[in-house]
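protien #1 (seq + structre)
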Amino acid sequence: MQNKKYTLGAWAAFLAGLTFGINSIVVKSANNVGLHTFELLAYQMIIPLIYFAIRSIIKKDNQVDTNKKSIVKNIYNWIAGISVVMTSLFYYIAIQEMDPSLASIGLFQYPWLFILFGYLIYGFKIRKIQLIAIFILWVGSMLLVSASLQEITFLGSLTGILAGISFAAYLFSLRYVSHHKYTKPFVFLIATMIALLIIIFNRSSINILSLEALLFGMITATLGQIITFELLSFAAKNSRPVIMAALTTVELPVAMVVTWIIWGPFPSLIKYIGLIIMVVSVIWLKLDEKAPKKAKLKKAI
């Protein structure tokens, strides 16, 4: 029975990574039919907000904090809301500017950025083994970049890296968000407000009410936020951390390989080597990751 539980959890982790990778392909397909990132962004936040609000109302959990004020007062809830919308915004712009295989290079810098946040904010130590893994990750990234220089744009590279920074901030904040049944809706409420503000300032150049925007918006929101959340939640409860960390990394090769198959060009040997190195180093950093208790903020110099 226990083995079956771990098997199901492992499959959930694998499917979560697979879904993340497929979602990036859907985003690029939306760009190819003329949709802008801003047109997807609203649905990416509003639909999960509605889903998680309903889910929180229905779900009963007697072990969570019942003080609603704790949600508003916890700074990490706000950071999570801001960083989740920024991750989608920057990553989708990177995909719009380049193909998903290149955009994902910037996004997957998040493991070492995550470690850096821990060091800068709370003074968590960076071990030599982590530095080695980070160096290997950079080597793999540089191999992929060097083999794709003609396809890379400055805006795409910049937003890809910013997506990695935002995602690292989001993952870091999730360690310290409120343990309350309405935390997830609150996080997406903040994200939705920011997304709507961005759309208001760009309303003259976009049409979020078009059929294409509605269709692709619902698909990306379902794949990128809802399904992956449920799969990761199930995997976290029913699989070993080592297996979960390794299998969720399938997003990176899926995004790259599917991109190469659909849009080309056929990858060189250097790209394959760079991809393998990146995957190994990301898994290494994930497996080495520990969850220390929240420490005191470092004193300002």
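ok now protien #2
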Amino acid sequence: MNLKLRVLSAGVLFFTGQLVMAQQDSVKTTTIDEVVVVGFGQKKTVQEVTGSISTMTAKSIEDVPVASVDKMLQGRVAGVQTGAASGQPGGFSNVRVRGISSINGVTTPIYIIDGVRVANGDLTTNNTTANILANMNPDDIENVTVLKDAVSTAVYGADAGAGVIVITTKSGKKGKPRFNLSFNTGFNQQAVESHRGFTAGEYKEYLKDGLNNLLGQNYTVDQYAAGAFNNSTVLSIFRSQADTNWADIVRKDGYQQNADFSMSGGSDKFTYYASANMFDQNSIVMNSFFKRLSYTTKLGYQATEKLKITSDFQISHGKTRTLGEGGGFANPMLAQYFNRPTDPARNPDGSWYYSPTNSRLSNNMFNPGYLLENNYNQAGSLRAFANLGAEYEIIDNLTYKLVFAPEYISVEEDTYWNPIHGDGYAYGGYQRTSVNRYFNFNIQNILDYSKKFGMHNVGASLIQEAYKSDRKFLRATGITVGSPELTTLSNFVVPYGYEGNVDISSRYGYAVTAHYDYDKLVLVDGSYRRDVLSQFLPSKKAGDFWSVGLGVDLARLNAIREIEQISLMKFRASYGKLGNQVSANPYATYSFLANYDDTAAATYNRVFNPNLSWETVNPLNIGLDLGFFRNRLTLSAEYFNKETKDLIYNLPLSRAQGLASYVDNIGTLVNKGYEFTLKADIFRGDRNQLNWSLGANVSTLENEITELYGGTVNTSTTTLRVGEGVRTFYLRKWAGVDSANGDPLWFINGVDGETTNNYNLAQQAVQGSFISDLYGGANTNLSYKGFDLDLQFTFGFGGKIYDDWASYTYSDGQYTLSYPGYGDIMGDYWTPTNTTANNPKPIINGNKRSNSASTRFLYDADFIRLSNARFGYTFDKGLLTGSGLNSFQVYVMANNAWTHRFDDRLKFDPETNVSGYTNLALPVLKSFLFGVNMSF
């Protein structure tokens, strides 16, 4: 391409052919170093960093219509994969930083808010799915920094192996009071097209072919309805006049809205920030929602020249209604494939239909419409968090900081099944109530020293940290209620069980960090931390973790500094030792939960393993950062190799030993790959000029087990073996359909070549991984005369998704009479006149195990998604004169608006591949919103 483009404004780029140059006019510019937040709230300029750090600013996630920050990371940060197997409002995303660093251990990063560790993930227990991070208001976030390598994370020691996500919240700044008000509202739809159910006519047609193939007959639908096959179930289906679309029965219009108000300001002595937020998100399936109310106040007070006091209080309440997943008959997503379309949804009088004899549908399934109106599974979460700090300058360049940060979380859950229909019918009504109370606290004592000696800059920190989590859990269940209108536990007259326990875990550690640089030309970082974990044996409680990092910025050499176009040329390298979060316990214990003649009876609970030790991670990182034209164009390239040793795994035991498994260290795995990040400000000007920026990140990942002490571990669908990843599918390979007779075929050796229609003769083989090995994102921003367009794309290639329910939904007749399955099969199953179909001949009771686990139900998860699109207009300040407003903006936004799946067979959200399996969960949503932002 021969492109010539010239833009005459200060500091913009010239493109002439393949040369890129920067021209400056006489406008004076001031360079402000970009600052990033690293461990324990400490700050560094980008020029001082030797580790691997990626940052999302508040602008990049502004107004994104999701409930929690973990859902914002996909495609915006190199090396980070996220995905949600469910579209549950307020649910959590699986987040992976540079791969999967454990088999049984924790694989999600820890979350740090303003230097303090906080709870994350799903804290519920009553089959409710929630996310405690969703209780935090995303509009309070200033930026999100992902720490990925040893020198960035080792200061967090024992828990840093899966990465660290550092969230910095907004603070008050010196100046007059400033008020901000934002609001958006819109509607939700299903993000991607899923499998459809059968219509009544299609079901009868498919069932007719399955019966004919079983009986060796050629009856028509009318003949079966007339009694050609004298079976009561068959007759009732073929004679039914109903045609129910069960998906329509459970669907509704999804909507959501968000309102946020904040104020900030301050003086030389005192700064303040306060916000209030309301968020309401509803799924497209009835009785599923998440609501949040939150309030934050953050204060800073310069008490004396040496003493600064800060406080941050956050309180929020979330309410979640969730729906069952998987094979539960109450799962509304199951109903569209398992309920017969020949059953009516309602009676002639408009009431919900079910059999008066057994309160079931004709195949013993439930009517989801009735259940969604009369049952519920909900959780209410209260989170109160405080971050109290005092910072005292002992002498010049030496500062002491004290942090005390308690976190109180209460999760109250209620499950109610009415006594009329559904799961509660057999119990005469069912109610289960539970309370989960968490009290976590974090104490830090930090001594910071920094000094500049000419060209030499030195810094050091001494850190003491203690963290404790205290959980108390209580649950009670009652059955048999006098009226379906009575839903609280005290109205259920028969006790049906109770549970209660206390879980306490703690750790404390000491750390030292050091930094040296010579004029930011040569940089050296190091850290050491010793952690002590409560649950290990005394000889194994302590772990030592460390890191070292080195950087050289050649752009600061005089010879290169004279090249005006080059502003950054930094080489970085780091290595160290981290720990992985573990929940395993090495102690032999008894459980006294059994009742033997009203005496507590003991059973074995754990097997003693005195050799159980930490999982440790050794990450190597090598990076190159390039900046051109005063960093108007930047490029980062990194190689990482993250080795996890002493993997913890549950090894199987024989039944004679009384337990199914015991915990041991069993091997080593490696995650390695490359990351590339590009940012470019192509045009930069004021409001009335054209502004255009581009960004992109691409990551590769290779996940491999390198040692496995006990040898290969195979299941019916997965394998753990040397040379493969920890999330590897191990399946028979589908070879298609025999065009001559409609039989299923598999490759005998699991790869290629000779085929067989005998499932038992086909061998299992490695068939790919859950994990995408190429993933990333791209974004662009265009603005002109107040109009602004933002687009964010994400993509992933190389991962696989397995349909865990396909043995029922693509059963080829085995379960069709009871559970119809996917209606997509119509027109694509073998018949004498359709011999090239992709699905075998249906035979009632099954066709040679055609629906057993194989790659027939394994799909490529390759995708490209427009994850967020935003178009807005900001009014000119001149038009706001006299209105009292400083700014006013209106916008429209779409989230997950477009998704391209490269595998035409895939009918699930492609980001499910982070989990690997589908579970008939709520569909992932796409949202369309209108919003307003104003400040005054």
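The radius of gyration is 30 Å.
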